[in-house]
Inverse folding.
């Protein structure tokens, strides 16, 4: 029999509220809003950049041309080597002609400086601008931002015209103009406000479209999710309603076909599994009567073995051992059948675990073969018979297949209310490839164990008994060599009916 047990129903899943935050609706809404935001911001940024560049370029060209024309008209009345008085007059004239535009003018000639009100010195200008104005016969400009205000700075050298094709030469007189760009800044701020006002409606419209689209898309998706959860709970007859001819309708049809095929397969598997269980239980039950008779006969033959010699004695010894082995196998099969049929029950009792474990070793004559660390006073509600089976199987397995000394340890669990029972040996250990399969039915690790008298069901029955108590069991290899089996049992099994 290869069946490992019934097909379990999955426990209901709890859907947390945080899960919906990462659902398809949230992702659709986020995607639409993100695309709308990027589109609006990209379009607004491009429009803003072009408009800003155009405004500043126009303002810059106008100011530079006005400054050049004003300077050309004013320097005609200056001598070739102006003094401080001429520089002051020039600066005052240029600033006064454009008072409404808030021009601040600075003139330099050699060591002489003249500045209009509002511009105290030339130190506020960048060294790059001054160097360019003083060495090149062309107008130079740059935008300077101070805090929240921006200004246009223009540097203009005064030059003399050469004869014929001779290039213009610097006169040494340089003029600087600083004009605050308040109107341009106001226009740019208005552009930013317009972009912001256009972005918010776009985001709202994108969110509305995302919600409408998500409602239409998520309705069949939610139905599919609900149907899959019902299938996970064991309801294989669930089907989806197919509407339309789109991809979601194709998905619903594929789900219905899959559910129908799965329902048919699961029904057949359950039928075969139930038949296999009944067969194992029936054949085990039917074998008990002839096995009882055979055991009685082998007991009689075993008493006559000392008087037998040769092949007859060997045959009697062999038939006696195989009959006992077959009887143990039938008992194990009957026990497994009770687990498969959910007929195994706990008969709980409040025990001193150390005393119970010592009794298990004493009944089987193992006290001298097993080292123990069993502190008194650790009590728990367990089934005495099933605890005896668990400890006997683990200790017997260590004595047969491990190496001395074998140790049985009892202690309290460090993390939660419970106890730990540990059986370890100092043998060769368990192959790493066999560790995941140790508690499977009829599994024997290695060829030596496959020829042993074990039925291959001992560890499987041990695991079933531990799980029936609500505990856990696992196997591992000791760092210094040998195997260790650890059983974790709660002090009181949860959800188990307890006898009065």
């Amino acid at each position: 029999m290869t069946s490992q047990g019934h097909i379990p129903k999955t426990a209901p899943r709890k859907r947390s509220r945080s899960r919906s935050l990462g659902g398809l609706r949230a992702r659709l809404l986020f995607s639409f809003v993100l695309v709308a935001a990027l589109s609006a911001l990209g379009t607004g940024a491009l429009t803003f950049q072009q408009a800003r560049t155009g405004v500043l370029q126009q303002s810059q060209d106008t100011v530079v041309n006005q400054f050049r024309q004003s300077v050309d008209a004013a320097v005609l009345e200056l001598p070739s080597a102006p003094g401080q008085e001429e520089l002051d007059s020039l600066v005052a004239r240029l600033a006064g002609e454009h008072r409404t535009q808030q021009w601040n003018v600075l003139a330099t000639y050699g060591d002489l400086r003249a500045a209009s009100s509002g511009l105290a010195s030339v130190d506020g200008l960048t060294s790059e601008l001054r160097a360019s104005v003083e060495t090149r016969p062309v107008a130079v400009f740059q935008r300077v931002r101070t805090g929240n205000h921006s200004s246009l700075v223009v540097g203009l050298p005064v030059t003399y015209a050469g004869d014929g094709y001779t290039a213009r030469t610097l006169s040494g007189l340089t003029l600087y103009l600083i004009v605050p760009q308040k109107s341009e800044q106001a226009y740019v701020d208005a552009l930013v406000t317009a972009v912001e006002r256009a972005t918010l409606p776009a985001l709202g419209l994108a969110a509305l479209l995302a919600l409408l689209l998500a409602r239409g898309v998520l309705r069949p998706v939610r139905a599919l999710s609900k149907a899959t959860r019902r299938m996970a709970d064991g309801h294989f007859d669930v089907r989806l309603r197919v509407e339309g001819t789109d991809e979601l309708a194709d998905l619903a049809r594929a789900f219905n076909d899959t559910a129908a095929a799965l329902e048919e397969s699961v029904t057949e598997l359950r039928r075969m599994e139930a038949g296999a269980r009944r067969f194992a239980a029936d054949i085990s039950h039917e074998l008990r009567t002839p096995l009882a008779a055979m055991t009685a006969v082998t007991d009689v033959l075993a008493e006559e073995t000392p008087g037998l010699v040769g092949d007859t004695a060997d045959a009697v010894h062999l038939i006696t051992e195989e009959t006992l082995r077959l009887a143990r196998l039938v008992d194990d099969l009957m026990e497994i059948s009770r687990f498969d049929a959910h007929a195994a029950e706990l008969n709980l009792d409040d025990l001193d675990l150390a005393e119970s474990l010592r009794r298990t070793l004493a009944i089987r004559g193992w006290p001298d073969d097993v080292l123990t660390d069993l502190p008194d006073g650790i009590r728990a509600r367990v089934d005495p018979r099933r605890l005896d089976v668990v400890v006997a199987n683990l200790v017997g397995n260590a004595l047969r297949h491990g190496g001395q000394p074998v140790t049985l340890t009892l202690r309290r669990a460090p993390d939660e209310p419970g106890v730990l029972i540990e059986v370890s040996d100092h043998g060769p250990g368990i192959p790493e490839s066999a560790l995941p399969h140790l508690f499977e039915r009829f599994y024997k690790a290695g060829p030596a164990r496959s020829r042993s008298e074990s039925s291959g069901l001992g560890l499987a029955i041990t695991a079933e008994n531990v799980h029936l108590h609500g505990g856990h069991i696992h196997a591992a290899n000791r760092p210094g060599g040998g195997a260790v089996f650890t059983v974790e049992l709660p002090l009181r099994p949860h959800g188990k009916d307890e006898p009065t």
